[in-house]
């Protein structure tokens, strides 16, 4: 490419000599710019979701192509966030697509040094057995005066702010039904 062709291709030259002296239109466009497309342009589907990071509940649009998440953006129809996301919410695509994301149940036996994979049913049964045993070990039906307590001090729950209101409600109901009285949430601490 000669110097004259390079100068004529230079956006400043096109701006000063063409019909776009303010540089807001064709003068500043290059062939590379014309070839660009939005990341979401070829998405097959768009799913609405809620950001998983805090209790604010910002709306998200999840763009999917060929069964893979290709982009996550703020949902402009959300009355909470109106299309905006904080830096963590903006980076939530990496939470879903990271090759380091653990997608299997991992278990390390007591005094063990290695992790092993468990199937989900086995892990759920182990958790249920341990919850039932812990509840039974220190169940208090009544106090010293015979007043009903129906509680256990062996179980506590510390919820996280990444859960939405519905999940926190169900967790609170579950632990209350189990007789736990130490139920707290990170958002209140």
Tell me what you see in this structure.
By secondary structure, the chain is an alpha+beta fold. It has 3 domains: 3-35, no CATH class; 45-97, N-terminal domain of TfIIb, CATH 2.20.25; 105-188, no CATH class. It contains 7 helices and 8 strands. It has helices spanning 3-9, 11-17, 31-35, 87-90, 92-97, 120-137, 165-178; strands at 45-50, 59-65, 68-74, 105-107, 116-118, 139-142, 148-159, 180-185. The strands form 3 sheets. A 3-stranded antiparallel β-sheet has the order 1-2-3. Strands 6-7-8 form a 3-stranded mixed β-sheet. β6 (139-142) and β7 form a beta hairpin. The longest helix is centred in the C-terminal third of the chain and has 18 residues, at 120-137. It is elongated and about 95 Å long. The model has no long low-confidence stretch (mean pLDDT 86).
- The biggest beta sheet, please? 3 strands, antiparallel
Terminal CA distance reads 65 Å
Please report the number of helical segments. 7
Instruction: Give the helix proportion (percent range).
Output: 25-40%
Radius of gyration from CA coordinates = 28 Å
Determine the strand fraction and express it as a percent band.
25-35%
Please mark out the parts with pLDDT under 50 across 5 or more consecutive residues, or reply none. none
Number of strands: 8
* Element string (H = helix, E = strand): HHHEEEHHEEHEEHE
């Amino acid at each position: 490419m000669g110097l004259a062709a390079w100068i004529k291709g230079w956006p400043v030259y096109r701006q000063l000599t063409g019909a776009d002296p303010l540089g807001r239109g064709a003068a500043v466009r290059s062939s590379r710019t014309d070839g660009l497309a939005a990341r979401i342009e070829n998405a097959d589907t768009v799913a609405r979701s809620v950001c998983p990071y805090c209790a604010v509940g910002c709306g998200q649009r999840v763009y999917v192509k060929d069964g893979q998440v290709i982009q996550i953006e703020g949902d402009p129809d959300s009355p909470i966030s109106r299309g905006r996301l904080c830096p963590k919410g903006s980076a939530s695509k990496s939470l879903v697509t990271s090759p380091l994301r653990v997608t299997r149940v991992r278990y390390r036996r007591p005094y063990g040094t290695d992790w092993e994979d468990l199937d989900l049913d086995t892990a759920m049964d182990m958790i249920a057995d341990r919850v039932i045993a812990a509840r039974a070990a220190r169940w208090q039906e009544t106090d010293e005066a015979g007043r009903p307590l129906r509680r256990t001090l062996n179980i506590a729950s510390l919820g996280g702010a990444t859960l939405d209101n519905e999940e926190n409600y169900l967790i609170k109901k579950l632990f209350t039904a189990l007789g736990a009285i130490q139920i707290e949430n990170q958002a209140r601490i």
